[in-house]
Design goal:
- Helices cover about 40% and strands about 15% of the residues.
- The chain is of the alpha/beta class and about 400 residues long.
- The protein has two domains: about 250 residues, Aspartate Aminotransferase, domain 2 (3-Layer(aba) Sandwich), CATH 3.40.640; about 110 residues, Alpha-Beta Complex (Aspartate Aminotransferase, domain 1).
- Helix 2 packs antiparallel against helix 10, helix 3 packs across helix 10 and helix 12 crosses helix 14.
- The protein is globular and about 75 Å long.
- Bound molecules: pyridoxal-5'-phosphate.
Amino acid sequence: MNTIIKKDFPFFNNNDIVYLDSAATSQKPQIVLDKMQEYYTQYCANTHRGEHELGDKATTEFENSRDYIAKFIGANTDELVFTKGTTEAINFVASSFVKSRFTKVFLSELEHHSNIVPWQLQGLEIVVLPLDKDLNINLEEYEKLLRLNPKSFVSITHVSNSFGIINPIKKLINIAHKYECLILIDGAQALAHLRIDVKDLDADFYAVSAHKAYGPTGIGALYGKYALLESMSPYQGGGSMITEVSFKKSSYLKPPLRFEAGTQAIAEVIGFKAALKYLFTLKQTQKEEDILLKYAKEKLQGLSRIQLYTQAENVLGNISFNIKGVHHNDIGILLSKQSIMLRTGHHCAMPIMKKLGIKGTIRLSFALYNTKEDINKTIQAIQKAIHLLTKNKGDKSASK
Ligand code: PLP
């Protein structure tokens, strides 16, 4: 967590922006941009088709990337399907797997809209797993619900994008399997911060997005146990996913290519690998990120009107709060004017905001390029904003 790492990111070269919105999307290191440019300038060709040398090179780089990304999360190469991101991965599982086998899906109250709306679109009933006062899933309630509903489908976030809660997914997966349930883990907020081993976790499906882990936008992946992928019909039809096509009938390749119809996001796949390689060289310094998160929390707790929503220790990556008597969006606007970029609002997690009786929060989200200096500047800017927004007001209203 230091200025040395900041130097790897061209975004920070010519500005003094404090970027605290990495849960939305992270900045990209030069190495990722270079790798993508290398594809466009040196071997730009389509993959998995044609016989020429450039196509071969592009296909090799593409499939090497699949291999690296799969290994990075502990998967076998043929268990990793490229998608546009976590959202598409969940939509894919909902439409190609869950819809035809289940009538309902069990979700926590903490989910991102990407882990709510896809199930609704497929006509599945949603059963909500309740949280305790610190926003942790109530494990007893969870087990009770699954005991009453064996052979169900569960879908839960690994790390909450709105409050940073790290769910105990190994336990959640064990309990799901005890009752013969299948489980998908939304890993969108985990990849940049945690070591993921899908085999050790025994996840049935695990979804990730590259852009939240220093990679390009528009690319992500779905891990699925091979037997499950093999049982799934294609999500979309088109070129490169077939073995035979006639006007009567078509047959399909084996997974993962069966699920990758049409020209893929080739440069992005290559950039995705470069991002994870970069992350690997930094050794995913979660300890340093924890130090920064604790530092930010301590500083925020020093603000007189602060309202935090969890005292849980199992948090990472982001911290959400409100300032009593001030609208969260007003703070966001005033901070932006001071070159501090953070997110305010419901963070695509309206159900948890409703449960807490608020419309939204102010969220600081961290990456390895953030520093204590960033936090200090942010706290000062918040104090200035509070002063401006409350100088003619009493101290009564809550931030709703
Ligand atoms: N799940 C969580 C927890 C997220 O935070 C996000 C994005 O913010 C998503 C899913 C969706 O990811 P993407 O927009 O990359 O598909």
